[in-house]
Amino acid sequence: MLLPAAAIRKLRERFGYVEINKATKIESGTGRDQTSTKTSFAGYQKRVGKANVKKAMNAETSTIYRDELANIVFVKQGGKIALKNTPANWELIGKGRSAYVFKIIGEQRAIKVFYPPFEHLAMEEARNYEKAAGISFFPRLYEAGEGYLVMDFIRGKTFFDCLAEGVAITRDHVAQVDKALELARRAGLNPSDIHLHNLLLTETGAVRLIDIARFSQKKQCTQWQDLKRGYERHYGQYYFPKRVPKWLMRIVAYFYQLRKRLNGKQ
Ligand SMILES: Nc1ncnc2c1ncn2[C@@H]1O[C@H](COP(=O)(O)OP(=O)(O)O)[C@@H](O)[C@H]1O
Ligand SMILES: [Mg+2]
């Protein structure tokens, strides 16, 4: 079915939201300069009201990242949670449905800071990482605290970016995910929420799994089985595009989630 140009534009607007790198750029003018951040943020705070503003952490917690964490501020913006500043020696590398993730510059570590109301997931995810400790497919956890986790930084691309950029996802990569999930199950976890943004491929072809907060849920999750079936049926076929547009992947994900929700209600 051919969609008219106007409909395609609408879909792009709905599903093609700002990329993280562009967002970093917008923020970096203020984010890397503490003084101007404070001034401009004060004005912003006045406009949006304090009730909408939440610090990532209260200043009493003891960690070497205390100052940075205490300076992170989240603001509610049109129903979404926006990050208002990036600490000077941190680089924003990702955002998901519960957290912003930064690379600590000069270290091979990433810090995941959960925004409200998901702060409680930090401890849940930390417990899961403890169970997965020693399994090389998962990053090592160094520290966990109120609303944040410090783990290995994985230099690589998400499967989502691989598809968008035309980087091949091979049968071996898929088999590595299967192996990681099998080992996680053996460690007493229940793998859930396995989607393209939570699978990373390194430059050496190693697969890493992140975002395992939901690995302790009771419900069985079929997301990986569904993804794998899609891969086996369509990936590499003559009609499968070399690069898949991001907005198209977001539409597919949207309808997949919608169908799951509707089936769940029946
Ligand atoms: N350890 C890490 N190393 C490199 N990138 C990461 C790491 N953890 C998260 N990311 C990036 O940040 C994004 C969001 O992280 P994630 O843990 O999935 O957050 P959420 O729970 O909000 O979905 C990921 O999709 C990935 O791009
Ligand atoms: Mg995620």
TrEMBL record:
Out of the domains of life, which is the source? Bacteria
InterPro entries assigned to the protein according to its UniProt record, in alphabetical order: Kinase-like_dom_sf, Meiotic_Drive_Suppr_Kinase
Name by which UniProt lists this protein? Serine/threonine protein kinase
